[in-house]
């Protein structure tokens, strides 16, 4: 039985931040694994051509593997590309392969270019019986606002923003919020920033505490109380094709992601 309540309907969250290296992918895979470990059914959609989320989940994503490219460009059903994660029950991944790098250009001339991922997700969810449907779909985005990220924003109902606890954390955030506002206005009125997670927190520095306080001031209802510490175990895990949840379950990184996932799940009712 699930340790945490299943949401009434699938929560579709885009993990976004226009900065690279702030912990988007790390947060996507670790929150996903943590939710899955609590008994929820979770799908990670890797829509970043770098395929880092696929790697971290131990998912084969060499060039010939059916991937999210086939879904957004060729219109293949998601079911054709979804793989079960080898190490974590209840966790699946739609991988990204290198050909996704070209999709940004190819999408431009396709019909319904902004909503192709949404169409695929909707069809997938409609084909699933209630007991087997995903509770969470987490979409890992590239750091740019190209058509792939727009597809993720159109498919999602929630935006999940990881913020690195460093000096320039809030810079670029207003641009992200403006872009989300544009998407709301023109493409997806449902979209809202529901969750903000402070990552790479260093309890020894005053700066980390200052940044966290400032973010909390701006987003009192969205910031999770749990902060993710800077941790070597977190950064090592992907090279073993694992999340920190299975790589080192008792580490501070694993425990903080598990706690953040519990908070996140509690906000679904
Ligand atoms: P993004 O997807 O936003 O580009 P990543 O999740 O790939 O960012 O993280 C960037 C780098 O920081 C990676 O090398 C990752 O392993 C490392 N990293 C992420 N979170 C942490 C953390 N809490 N502690 C230490 N290293 C981290
Ligand atoms: Mg990434």
UniProtKB/TrEMBL annotation:
<comment type="similarity">
    <text>Belongs to the ParA family.</text>
</comment>
<feature type="domain" description="AAA">
    <location>
        <begin position="11"/>
        <end position="192"/>
    </location>
</feature>
<comment type="function">
    <text>May play a role in septum formation.</text>
</comment>
<protein>
    <submittedName>
        <fullName>Chromosome partitioning protein</fullName>
    </submittedName>
</protein>
């Amino acid at each position: 039985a699930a340790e945490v309540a299943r949401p009434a309907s699938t929560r579709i969250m885009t993990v976004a931040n226009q900065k690279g290296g702030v912990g988007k992918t790390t947060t996507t895979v670790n929150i996903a694994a943590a939710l899955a470990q609590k008994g929820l059914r979770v799908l990670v959609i890797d829509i970043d051509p770098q395929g880092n989320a696929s790697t971290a989940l131990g998912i084969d994503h060499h060039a010939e593997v059916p991937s999210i490219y086939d879904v957004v460009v060729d219109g293949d059903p998601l079911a054709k590309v979804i793989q079960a994660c080898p190490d974590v029950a209840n966790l699946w991944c739609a991988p990204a392969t290198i050909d996704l790098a070209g999709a940004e250009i190819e999408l431009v001339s396709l019909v319904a270019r902004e909503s192709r991922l949404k169409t695929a997700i909707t069809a997938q969810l409609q084909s699933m019986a209630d007991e087997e449907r995903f509770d969470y779909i987490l979409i890992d985005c590239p750091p740019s606002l190209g058509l792939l990220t727009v597809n993720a924003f159109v498919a999602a109902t929630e935006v999940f923003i990881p913020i690195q606890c460093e000096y320039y954390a809030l810079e670029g955030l207003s641009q992200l919020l403006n872009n989300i506002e544009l998407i709301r206005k023109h493409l997806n009125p449902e979209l809202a920033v529901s969750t903000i997670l402070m990552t790479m927190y260093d309890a020894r520095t005053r700066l980390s505490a200052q940044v966290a306080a400032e973010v909390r001031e701006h987003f009192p209802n969205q910031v999770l109380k749990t902060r993710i510490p800077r941790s070597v175990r977190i950064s090592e895990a992907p090279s073993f094709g694992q999340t920190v949840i299975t790589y080192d379950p008792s580490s501070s990184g694993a425990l903080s992601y598990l706690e953040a996932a519990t908070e996140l799940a509690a906000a679904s009712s």
